[in-house]
Amino acid sequence: MSFAPLKIGKHIINTPIIQGGMGVGISWDRLAGAVSKEGGLGVISSVGTGIYENRKYAHKLAGDNRPVDAINFYSKEALHEIISRARKICGDKPLAVNVLYAINDYNRVVIDSCEAGADIIITGAGLPLTMPEAVKNFPNVALVPIVSTAKALKILCRRWEKTHGRMPDAVIVEGPLSGGHQGFKYDECLLPENQLEAILPPVVEEAKEWGNIPVIAAGGVWDHDDIKKMFSLGASGVQIGTRFIGTHECDASDNFKQVILDAKEEDIQLLKSPVGYPARGVKTNLQYSIEQGTAPKIACISNCVAPCHRGEEAKAVGYCIADRLSDAYDGDLSRGLFFSGANGYKLNEIISVKELMHKLVNGE
């Protein structure tokens, strides 16, 4: 079977499956390029580009080979190279970049992405009220904010209309089963009224009030039946992250993929994060070392996210998120932080992106 194409601004996504942007280094050129090539929307994560190709694009390194400050952790040169290589895979098909609102240098990284040829910018990790400001010189770039409630979408649309005279080209509504950072506090993630199937319909109704903005459902979407369910609730597309880790093209290390393959349902938990909201990942040696007081020493080198207050929140939760995600990308099983959606335990094979897209569309 086939699903109706998804229009995001001027861009047509023939198969309305968006691959979630996964940093650090999980969705870069190989994965995003392959997904776009197969008719979905490949999404490059802009987080931690300074460690791309063994830190060759980070001009200043310190303390255990860490990029120094946001200018190096979010490397413009590396991002340009990643997008260029993805383009060699997918040609002129739509390609997106995910830029977290909570990062330091948000506007600069969005501009870097647009200059490098991104068609679509996706932003979550905070309500991106100023998102249009960063793309004011790139009128053809579509904007897709991520929200967790209809109220958040209303606030965002009001502000964008008043301040920038534009609307989102699509909106992603993300439930609390997603991998990585959540849009709800810890206890809120567990409430029935905050699950994706509950928050999606009100967001769809709110989106209609602002000109039928397409709504993309995310957070726990795993297979063909899940996709059909989201469409029945009013979604025009879906975003899937963790399942794409189980592909040959995924940019993650083999060790990272094996952590997800080996994870049992009870291993995937909500973890404390320096960002201020919980993050879902696999409980591995890092969490045990934090509990035992033997975790790596915290020194804010990369200055990656504003809510961490230059390492203060990292000290409070027991780890630096930039360092530990970089370790996971490097395949360091003793110190790495391995994000996964709640359904990650279902991953049991590594297949090609082409095969996965076929399974998602056809349910085979």
What's the short story on this structure?
Helix 6 links the parallel strand 8 (120-123) and strand 9. The chain has helices at residues 29-37, 52-55, 69-73, 76-90, 106-115, 131-134, 150-164, 196-209, 224-232, 254-262, 285-292, 312-317, 321-329, 353-362; strands spanning 6-8, 11-13, 17-19, 42-45, 61-62, 66-67, 95-98, 120-123, 142-147, 171-174, 180-181, 215-218, 237-240, 268-271, 279-282, 338-339.
Q: SSE layout and pairings?
A:
Blueprint: E1 6-8, E2 11-13, E3 17-19, H1 29-37, E4 42-45, H2 52-55, E5 61-62, E6 66-67, H3 69-73, H4 76-90, E7 95-98, H5 106-115, E8 120-123, H6 131-134, E9 142-147, H7 150-164, E10 171-174, E11 180-181, H8 196-209, E12 215-218, H9 224-232, E13 237-240, H10 254-262, E14 268-271, E15 279-282, H11 285-292, H12 312-317, H13 321-329, E16 338-339, H14 353-362
Helix pairs in contact: 1-4, 4-5, 7-8
Descriptive notes:
This protein has 364 residues and is an alpha/beta fold. It has 14 helices and 16 strands. It has two domains: 6-51 and 74-252 and 346-362, Alpha-Beta Barrel (TIM Barrel); 257-339, no CATH class. The chain is 35% helix and 15% strand. Helix 1 packs parallel to helix 4 (76-90), helix 4 packs parallel to helix 5 (106-115) and helix 7 packs parallel to helix 8 (196-209). The longest helix is centred in the N-terminal third of the chain and has 15 residues, at 76-90.
